[in-house]
Amino acid sequence: MERFGHWFDSPWRRSSLAALAGTLPVLAFPAPSLWWFAYVALVPWILLLRAAPTPRRALYDGWCGGAGFMLAMHHWLLPNLHVFTFVIAALLGALWAPWGWLVHRFLAGTPGPGRIAGALVVVPSGWLTVELVRSWEALGGPWGVLGASQWQVEPALRLASVGGVWLLSFLLVALNVAVAVLVSTRAARVPAVAGLVATATVTSAAWAWAPRPESDGRTRIAVVQPGVIDGTDSGDRRFAVEERLTRELVGQDVDLIVWGESSVGFDLARRPDLADRLAGLSRGTGAPILVNVDAQRSDKPGIYKSSVLVGPGGPTGDRYDKMRLVPFGEYIPARSLLGWATSVGEAAGEDRRRGTEQTVMDTADGIRVGPMVCFESAFPDMSRHLVDDGAQVLVAQSATSTFQQSWAPDQHASLAALRAAESGRPMVHATLTGVSAVYDASGTRVGDWVGTDARTARVFDVPLATGTTVYVRFGDWPLRAALLVLAAWCLGEGVRTLRIRRPAPGWRVPPARTAHESPARPGR
Q1: What is the mean pLDDT of residues 381-388?
Q2: Confidence label for 502 from pLDDT (cuts 50, 70 and 90)
Q3: Within a 13 Å sphere around the CA of 501, how many CA atoms are in the beta-carbon half?
Q4: I need a labelling partner for 276 at 20 to 30 A (CA). Which of 227, 284, 340, 486 fits?
Q5: Measured CA angle at 364 (ends 360, 369), to 5 deg
Q6: Partners of residue 371 on adjacent β-strands
Q7: How far is CA 380 from CA 145, 176, 384, 442, in A?
Q8: Residue 305 confidence (pLDDT)
Q9: What is d(CA 505, CA 503) in angstroms, rounded to the nearest whole number?
Q10: Measured on CA atoms in the order 406, 409, 414, 415, is the torsion positive or negative?
Q11: pLDDT for residue 78 is more than 90
Q12: Which burial class, exposed, middle or buried, applies to 27 when counting CB atoms under 10 A from its CB (0-12, 13-18, 19+)?
């Protein structure tokens, strides 16, 4: 044991171990999908942080663990961004440095019942704050939020309708903290178990009380997935394949046909021939077609990614321009400083333009559709706002062709389950190259996934739903609660520090005397 202890004396060894511990939670996400591992995946990292020799070392261990987590979660970017992937992981990993200090502050040494109770609330709140900050679009968005690992667990999806993916993250971190205390501190096992019981009780009550979506008929939605098509004329060839697959839907009584992201590489106003062909497909199938145009606009400067609804008479006028763009993939943040990223990887050569507002589209059959594009499906607030505006079906149009042989397609498809459960509305995740998937209003999968090896048009019977979930009504309340918890704790720490520094009541410091002063003589 003494030799093992000396092994930790090296800062580099501790940093390496912290980075390795930070990678463990990624195994709970697709493709491994070891969802149960999320319940203990943070324990090694937490144990390392509580054993840090100093609070400053805990900061470093938090940073290294965060960098390991971000690199493992986004490892599939390496072939495209190369060394820049490590730079991004290191920068974003710094967000976990204060969380590492927080873990050490509550769990170092032999924590008493008060510190353990505080850790079960404050440490998860700190983790949620990290997830909130890194969810900013310019920092990559909320891809890999810990709670998203529970996308296929029915009770967890039910809880997501109450507090979104954020509530799941909070509960998972609290569970990991309790397990870490049980493993490391024998004297503190009773309060740790009490915390587990209290958490389980509150969670069970929320699960039982949460309203379920009410069934409201069905609709038939087709997803057209053309597969990987490369080459200089890939735009025309992809359109031809999509056209052929769509014709196979004639006579199948579909209500809506969805093509993937960048399914049309030309502005339809500049290519009226393509608009006419789409209108002919709509007439032949009896359904409107939601395509995604990735091209220079004829009416505005710049390239937009736009969801466009096409009916029997051509484009209906319903259009949604993508609002949240993928950093480096669709634009270069601070291009004047970071434009060199295009020379070391496949970063965007020209910035896409942003849309200004979300749109709910009305189809011919009266179904109201809320479109999103690509990684916008990772943002819980976007789907929540669409449902609040009246969307009956959520649709995400995506393309992960660059990352076909990685974990990215599975990770992306799993996010739609969370968005469906949070909003109480079915969601269609339609891609060019897979994985395409459909989920009902509870987040349960409808039919089979359309894998990355498929080139097909698939029809799904999608159950509709009514009702309003707690999450849609009250929004990101777990994040607001976490910020309040941290603010209250910081205030309490400040007051406690002032009390320690303030002299005790009644204690008076005698005045200082100079060399020229002498005490008064009695009777003088």
Answers
A1: 96
A2: low
A3: 6
A4: 227
A5: 25
A6: 395
A7: 11, 24, 6, 15
A8: 93
A9: 6
A10: positive
A11: no
A12: middle
Q: Please give the full DSSP string across 115-166, using - where no structure is assigned.
A: HHHHHHHHHHHHHHHHHHHHTSGGGT-STT-GGGGGTT-HHHHHHHHHHHHH
Tell whether the model's pLDDT for residue 336 goes beyond 70: no
Are 260 and 401 within 8 A, CB to CB? Answer: no
Question: Would you state the pLDDT for residue 55?
Answer: 95
CA distance 25 to 127: 13
> Which alpha helices (H) appear in 434-523, and where do they start and end?
470-474, 477-501
Nearest alpha carbon to residue 89 among 11, 168, 26? 26
For residue 154, give Cα distances in angstroms to 157, 161, 413, 419.
5, 11, 17, 14
| Omega cis (within 30) before 206 | no
182: exposed, middle or buried (C-beta count within 10 Å: 0-12, 13-18, 19+)?
A: middle
Q: What angle do the packed helices 55-73 and 83-93 form, to 10 degrees?
A: 140
pTM, two decimals, is: 0.90
Spatial distance between the Cα atoms of 428 and 418, rounded to a whole number of angstroms = 12
* pLDDT value at 125 more than 90: yes
Checking if the pLDDT of 396 tops 70, the result is: yes
482-487 LR contacts (CB < 8 Å, sep 24+)? 482/124, 482/125, 482/126, 482/128, 482/129, 482/132, 482/166, 482/170, 483/125, 483/129, 483/132, 485/121, 485/122, 485/125, 486/122, 486/125, 486/126, 486/129
Best CA proximity match to 177, nearest among 161, 163, 165, 191: 191
Give the model's pLDDT for residue 344: 58
Q: Give the span between the Cα atoms of 121 and 144, in whole angstroms.
A: 22
- Cβ-contact 93, 80 below 8 angstroms: no
Q: H/E element holding 318?
A: strand 314-321
C-beta of residue 63 within 8 angstroms of C-beta of residue 94: yes
Q: Which residues contact 16 (CB under 8 A, 6 or more apart)?
A: 64
- Using pLDDT thresholds of 50, 70 and 90, give the confidence band for residue 343: low
Amino acid identity for residue 147 in this structure: G
